[in-house]
Fold this sequence. Notes:
The protein is mainly alpha-helical. It contains 1 helix and no strands.
Amino acid sequence: MNLMIANRYRISQKIGAGSFGEI
């Protein structure tokens, strides 16, 4: 797994987007 994807997933959850973090 890429660290960038994990970072983006965590940020997505923080802002409550859940658009990119739904893989």
